[in-house]
């Protein structure tokens, strides 16, 4: 091990001990060891035990731990400290500027155990209620977490799309006449992007675009440039001749299984050297298939999109302008950043016909959930705003917590006063498949449940969704006329798009909801629509593309 690696081990040990409120003297001695060892010029591996003990500030105990690292690559004390700390909490300590004291509050008081959960808590304004976390601190931490997540290479779709837009603008500005497009998972609007890939059709050299600041070249091989953005996002840039841009765009966009199936279905045809992607489909005698649908057949219940295209049965996919109402928003009545009036006015300004306000219910104490008296007070404010803002309509909703046994957390006399209820799980996320399924089905069976909210509770790249028997859950939704939410927040996108065809087959409506905790959060509907399109959702099968469903009984 190098001196810096050994020094970092002591720094991590000090952080973990401070996190667990261990002996202050030991913590201080390990911090001092970190500062001393990282500046040491001569490699520790070349020093004898006596020489190591002779280093200022390095006593017998620390010397012994250094020898452990040098001989076996591990330190018993560090391994023990890691073992009693959740892996996600250990990872939090690696976020620059986020020290053990604050991590302890997040872990012990907020019960947050992963980076992704922490980012989402920032997004929902959960941290501002705790000592040492003001709004400014929360926003600063959110930025640091985003940087950390980018450095892990995998990206949520929203971050990947933003970076792809920047790269596209940068390349077209530097390369006159170049054709530029994202390809791969980002062009297919996948919820998680493993590699950010860009295709450039240009009859010239690309090296001038790598300025060492905005775009940093790391490696070049056979027309592929591995680079990194200033914000640390890795990007792979493919170069081809301008006249073959369409062929390469098609080849690099679709999932490999889709591209292979396309080629096998057209034996004897060559798709090389085509300038536009449209020419590829015209040559095959097929209508244009949008990138979102270019996935393997097995990802959508075994029905091939190529078969649909061949038979003239490609669905007309839902679009963002089809969404008439904004459902699932939070206001300052619970944990939202903006007031009820501000959220409603903004939705109306964006052109929506209605908004469904769904603040947190009384079990969500961590989110200032509404007790029954506050529910009634909010309803009075909604009545007043409806009179003022007509014909724009504000629906009285709630995001009611599904309790451990599947019950909702209000009595019937409160639940029946809402226009609609979103039933969601926010706690006890580690049930086994059978218990989790029973819990969800009981909530679906509640006569007041209208929408099943973020069904698995997943946080992409951070927390797996809890296991469910989806056949049983979807059958229950069909029996009880309960819609399933596609939570549009890019960290959730839950229900997964691959399950949408199964829901639609049963006649279940999908509700594309932003789960907005601020005015800006309403714009997340865009990401929900893109995910829904991957699941072949049409406007007719989407709950909030119409306004009259709210008047029909469940």
Descriptors:
554 residues, alpha/beta, DNA polymerase, domain 1, TIM Barrel, 3 domains, globular, five-stranded mixed sheet, Beta Polymerase, domain 2, 22 helices, single chain, seven-stranded parallel sheet
Topology:
Blueprint: H1 3-19, H2 24-37, H3 49-53, H4 60-72, H5 76-83, H6 87-92, H7 100-109, H8 115-123, H9 135-151, E1 155-156, H10 157-174, E2 179-183, H11 184-187, E3 192-193, E4 196-201, E5 215-221, E6 224-229, E7 234-240, H12 245-253, H13 256-264, H14 277-284, H15 305-310, E8 325-329, H16 340-349, E9 354-357, H17 372-389, E10 393-401, H18 412-415, E11 420-424, H19 433-445, E12 451-452, H20 470-479, E13 483-487, H21 500-505, E14 510-513, H22 525-534
Parallel strand pairs: 4-7, 8-9, 9-10, 10-11, 11-12, 12-13, 13-14
Antiparallel strand pairs: 1-3, 2-4, 5-6, 6-7
Helix pairs in contact: 1-2, 1-5, 1-7, 8-9, 12-14, 19-20
> What name does CATH use for the topology of the largest domain?
TIM Barrel
* Residues in β-strands, percent: 5-15%
Helix content: 40-55%
User: Describe the biggest sheet?
Assistant: 7 strands, parallel
State the fourth-level CATH superfamily of the largest domain: Metal-dependent hydrolases
Total E-strand runs: 14
Q: Compute the gyration radius: what is it?
A: 27 Å
pLDDT averaged over residues:
92
């Amino acid at each position: 091990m190098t001196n810096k690696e050994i020094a970092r081990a002591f720094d991590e040990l000090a952080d973990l001990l401070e996190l667990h409120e261990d002996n202050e003297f030991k913590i201080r001695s390990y911090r001092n060891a970190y500062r001393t060892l990282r500046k040491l010029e001569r490699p520790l591996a070349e020093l004898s035990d006596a020489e190591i003990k002779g280093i200022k500030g390095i006593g017998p105990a620390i010397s012994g731990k250094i020898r452990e690292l040098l001989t076996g690559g591990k330190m018993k004390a560090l391994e023990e400290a890691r073992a009693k700390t959740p892996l996600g909490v250990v990872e939090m300590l690696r976020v620059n500027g986020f020290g053990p004291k604050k991590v302890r509050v997040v872990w012990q008081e907020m019960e947050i155990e992963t980076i992704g959960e922490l980012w989402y808590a920032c997004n929902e304004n959960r941290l501002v209620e705790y000592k040492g976390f003001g709004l400014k601190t929360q926003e600063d931490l959110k930025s640091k977490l985003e940087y950390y997540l980018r450095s892990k290479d995998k990206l949520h779709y929203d971050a990947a799309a933003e970076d792809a837009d920047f790269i596209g603008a940068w390349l077209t500005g530097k390369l006159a006449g170049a054709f530029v497009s994202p390809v791969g998972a980002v062009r297919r609007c996948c919820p998680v992007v493993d590699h950010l890939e860009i295709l450039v059709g240009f009859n010239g050299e690309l090296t001038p675009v790598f300025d060492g600041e905005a775009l940093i070249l790391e490696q070049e091989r056979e027309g592929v440039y591995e680079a990194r953005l200033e914000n640390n996002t890795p990007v792979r840039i493919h170069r081809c001749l301008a006249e073959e841009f369409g062929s390469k765009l098609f080849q690099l966009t679709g999932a490999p299984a889709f591209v292979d199936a396309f080629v096998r279905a057209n034996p004897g045809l060559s798709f090389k050297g085509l300038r536009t992607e449209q020419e590829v489909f015209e040559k095959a005698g097929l209508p244009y298939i949008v990138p979102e649908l270019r996935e393997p057949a097995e990802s959508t219940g075994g029905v091939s999109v190529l078969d649909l295209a061949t038979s003239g049965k490609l669905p007309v996919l839902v679009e963002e302008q089809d969404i008439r109402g904004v459902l699932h928003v939070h206001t300052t009545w619970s944990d939202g950043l903006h007031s009820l009036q501000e959220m409603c006015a903004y939705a109306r300004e964006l052109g929506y016909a209605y908004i469904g306000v769904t603040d947190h219910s009384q079990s969500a104490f961590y989110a200032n959930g509404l007790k029954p008296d506050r529910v009634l007070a909010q309803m009075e404010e909604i009545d007043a705003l409806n009179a003022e803002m007509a014909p724009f309509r504000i629906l009285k909703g709630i995001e009611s917590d599904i309790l451990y046994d599947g019950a909702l957390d209000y009595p019937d006399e409160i639940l029946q006063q809402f226009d609609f209820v979103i039933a969601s799980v926010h706690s006890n996320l580690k049930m086994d498949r059978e218990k989790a399924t029973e819990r969800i089905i009981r909530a679906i069976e509640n006569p007041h449940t209208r929408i099943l909210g973020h069904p698995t509770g997943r946080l992409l790249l951070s927390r797996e969704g809890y296991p469910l028997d989806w056949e049983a859950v979807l059958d229950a939704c069909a029996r009880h006329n309960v819609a399933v939410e596609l939570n549009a927040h890019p960290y959730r996108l839950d229900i997964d798009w691959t399950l949408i065809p199964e829901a639609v087959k049963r006649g279940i409506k999908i509700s594309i909801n932003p789960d907005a905790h601020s005015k800006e959060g309403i714009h997340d509907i865009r990401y929900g629509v893109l995910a829904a399109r991957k699941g072949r959702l049409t406007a007719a099968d989407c709950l909030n593309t119409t306004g009259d469903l709210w008047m029909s009984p469940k």
